[in-house]
């Protein structure tokens, strides 16, 4: 087993455990819940096989769904994120970057990585909570949940990335 595959499996397991055991119990102001497992999607390197990204995202969503009692929500949302991530990453990668660039604050720069994170997390939260609500009768609560969870998730991802950078 290669070193990078082992790291990815370990990261997969740690993010799933952290989400299932700790983060699912956090409901800041009774509506904001961090969904940190989205961080794994951000870290797929440039030119990673598209089918590989989709499979990783599908299984990550499936595992999270099984531990979080959200049947199919995380799976559908993560699969959508896996579909869109390679195209979105191309927008933020410099032209002279290596073909196997690993997205991070160090390689993309703080601003580009932050924008990349915000867009990917926003897309995920919008889809996840739209599927969860499946209606917009209480749209103020829905918006508060989306933006609260998005802000909390982005802060955690950028904090982790900042620690990794140094």
Give an overview in words.
This protein has 166 residues and is mainly α. It has seven helices and no strands. The protein is globular and about 50 Å long. The model has no long low-confidence stretch (mean pLDDT 88).
- Oligomerization state of this entry? single chain
Average pLDDT score: 88
Largest sheet: none
With helices defined by DSSP (H or I, 4 residues minimum), what is the helix count? 7
Uncertain residue ranges: none
Spatial gap, N to C terminus: 28 Å
H/E series: HHHHHHH
> Outline, from the CA principal axes?
globular
Portion in strands: under 5%
* Record field, number of beta strands: 0
Helicity level: over 70%
Radius of gyration: 15 Å
- What structural class should be given to the helix and strand makeup? mainly alpha
List keywords for this structure.
single chain; 166 residues; mainly alpha; 70% helix
Question: What would you say about this model in short?
Answer:
The chain has helices spanning 3-21, 39-42, 50-68, 73-92, 105-108, 110-133, 139-165. It has 166 residues and is mainly alpha-helical.
Helices and strands, with pairings:
Blueprint: H1 3-21, H2 39-42, H3 50-68, H4 73-92, H5 105-108, H6 110-133, H7 139-165
Helix pairs in contact: 1-3, 3-4, 4-6, 6-7
């Amino acid at each position: 087993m290669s070193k990078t595959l082992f790291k990815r499996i370990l990261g997969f397991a740690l993010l799933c455990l952290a989400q299932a055991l700790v983060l699912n119990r956090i409901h800041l102001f009774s509506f904001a819940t961090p969904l940190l497992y989205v961080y794994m999607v951000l870290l797929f390197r440039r030119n990673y096989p598209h089918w590989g990204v989709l499979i990783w995202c599908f299984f990550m969503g499936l595992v999270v769904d099984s531990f979080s009692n959200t049947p199919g929500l995380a799976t559908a949302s993560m699969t959508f994120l896996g579909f869109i991530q390679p195209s979105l990453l191309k927008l933020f990668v410099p032209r002279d970057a290596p073909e196997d660039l690993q997205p991070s604050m160090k390689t993309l720069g703080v601003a580009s990585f932050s924008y990349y994170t915000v867009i990917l997390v926003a897309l995920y939260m919008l889809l996840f909570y739209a599927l969860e609500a499946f209606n917009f009768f209480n749209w103020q609560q829905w918006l508060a949940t989306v933006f609260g969870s998005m802000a909390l998730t982005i802060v955690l991802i950028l904090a982790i990335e900042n620690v990794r950078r140094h």
